[in-house]
C-alpha cells in the first residue's frame, strides 16, 4: 500500500482558492511539526555568534506578515488596535523585533488565530477575486499571488529555522 500526498482542499472554497489556502495551511502545519517540543532556549537561540534571527523572531515575523496579508486580501486597512498588539514589522534599526520569553504555545496560538482569520477571509473569494490587485510594497500584487506568497514565505523561513535547530542541537551536544 502506498501513501498519497496531496493538498487537502476545503469544499466551501472556490477550487483555486482552496488549493492556495491549502498550501498555506499545510506549510503552517509543517512549521508547527518542525518546532514541536523545542525548548525556550532553542526558540531564542540566535546562532553561534548571536547575530541571527531566533526561531521565535522568525515565527513572529511570519505571523506579523501573514496578519497584514489577511487585511490586504480583505481590502481593508490594518486596524490600529492590531498594529498595537502585533507591534511593528521591524525595529528602529530595520531588524526583526526581539522576541524573548514568549512560549512556543503562545506563538502557535497566535499563528492559528491568523490562519483561522485567513480561512474565514478566503472562503468569501471567488476565482475572479484572485485577480484583484491589492497594495504591496511600492506597487500592487494580485490576491492570488498574495496567498501563494504567504505559503512560499513560510517555507522560505522554515529553512532558516531548521538550520538554527540543527546548529543549536550540535552545539548543545
From TrEMBL:
Domain DinB-like: 27-161
Domain of life assignment: Bacteria
InterPro entries the UniProt entry points to: DinB-like, DinB/YfiT-like
Organism of derivation: Bacillus swezeyi
Name of the protein in question: DinB-like domain-containing protein
